[in-house]
Structures are given as structure tokens and as C-alpha cells.
Task: structure prediction
Amino acid sequence: MATLEELGLAGVPREDPLTYPGAWPARSGLLHGDRMLPLTRLVYDDRAPVLAVGSNACPGQLRHKMAGFGLDSPVPMVRSRVTGLDVGVSAHVSRMGYVSASPVKSPSVTRELFVLWLDRRQLDVIDASEGAPLPDGNFRRAWLPAPDVQVQLADDTVLSGAYAYVNRHGVLHDGTGAPRRHPGQRPLLTELLASSARLRELFGTSPEEFSERARGDARLCARGTRLFAEHGWVTGSGFEPYVARSPRRPRAR
Result:
């Protein structure tokens, strides 16, 4: 089977922030090491289903996260039709040097997204990468039940629900109060910088400067996050209530 490099899926947004959210596969597959293998099934009852709305759907990024914890176990990635959810913009600046995606509740929207079926150790890795276990982490993992969010697989199976990572800072709105869609890193940063002289003072005038200054600078990223709120750019994702009532332990072994 083809390698991630051969498929154009080896890029890692954590190493090249302006490529966020990275390249997504064209179809379902089993990520195993540096290869994408065919799937033998679409549902894995012994694993937790996690919706990937940003770079977690990028095999290169996913492999990079797992390798950081010494894991090389296979990850099923299942392309799905998801209704009730759209891809918004997190209301925080990441120390990775980008402004990430976050799910927003959108009852009339249907998107093609990937479900990652994660075992216990893999889920711990993704939780850690999103800051979910930390009191001040940027994301919380929430269980989104059907029919509020409908996840339909290629064989027409509809899942009972799936996990997603909800930003605890909220999401950015589009000027009308509605959550804005994430257009990709470079156009997003261009738009944000053009909208705020204070943001340009902190992060420079170009996406390249923004990423370079933000990367690894926790204090600067925190200032940028506060500035989003001070500008009145922040709204709720609509998924905050689901965080409060989500189970503490995942459905995985």
C-alpha cells in the first residue's frame, strides 16, 4: 500500500503551521505507521468514535501525535456524513502557531468528516494533545448524541453518537453573531490581522509573522486569546451543554 508521503498525506501542521488543518485522505482507511491500509469494517465497538474537525483528520499530524507518546498502533479513519455540526474557528491562539478549528452546532449543515475509532491509549494521546485533562486546557471532549448530531457511514449505518473536542473559549463569529467557518490557516490569519491593529502589534502583519511569533510563546498566545474576547469576536459553539453532561470515561477498552 502507498505511504503517506506517496499519498501527499505526510505533512504535519504542528511543524508547518500555515498548512493547518493539513491534508485529509480522500477515503476511509487504516492509518498504520506511515501507510494507509484498507479497512475491513466501518464500526469498531471496542473503540471510541471521535469526530475529527481539524488536524486530527490529517494522517501526518495524527501519526506525529501518536509517535510523541511512543504509539504506533493502527487507527481506523472512517469518512462519514455528519449532519448538525459545522467546522468553526477556535477562539484561542495555539502555541503550535495557528488558530485551530472547533465544532459548532449547525442543525441544517451536513459535512464530510472523519470518525477516528480510538482505543484507550490512543484516546488518552488525543485528549492530551487537546488539553482536555487540564483545568485550563483549550478543549473539552464532549459526547454528541444522535439525533442532535447524526453520523452516517458509507453503508448507511448511523452511530448513536460520537465524541468531539469543544473549545472552552468559544468560537469566533462572522460579524453577525453566527459562528464563522474555518477557511484554512492562511486566509483566516490574513482576515484576522486585517481586522485588528492591536492583533498586528502583537503578531505582525502577515500569516508568516503570526505563526512565527505565536509558536511556542504561551504568554503571547494567551494575550491573543484575550484580545479575541476584548474585540467582541467570540460566541458560543452551541455544544457547551454537551460538555457538562458527557460521561467521564470513554466508550473504549
Observations:
- Strands lie at 29-32, 35-37, 48-52, 75-89, 101-118, 139-145, 150-152, 161-167, 171-172, 234-235.
- The first strand starts at residue 29 and ends at 32.
- Confidence is low (pLDDT under 50) at residues 248-253.
